[in-house]
Amino acid sequence: MRVSIKTKILKICDEKIAAKGNNVGLSFYAFFSNKNDDPELLFEVAQWWIMEMKLDHFEKAEKIKSLVTSI
User: Which of 9, 30, 37, 63 has the fewest beta carbons closer than 10 A?
Assistant: First the structure.
């Protein structure tokens, strides 16, 4: 996974946890704008989320943060 998206995922997880608490859930769409301006990156994250990690549509931000940190 690209360093730039790892950094963005960690930042967004931290923001969501700070705003809504440790139990907040999110999907991989939380890391992208509503525009499909980087389809390759969207596909890269979707493939990691769905195919590699076999995650549900919504997962706890704490779990995602832990997974991304371990990469």
Answer: 37
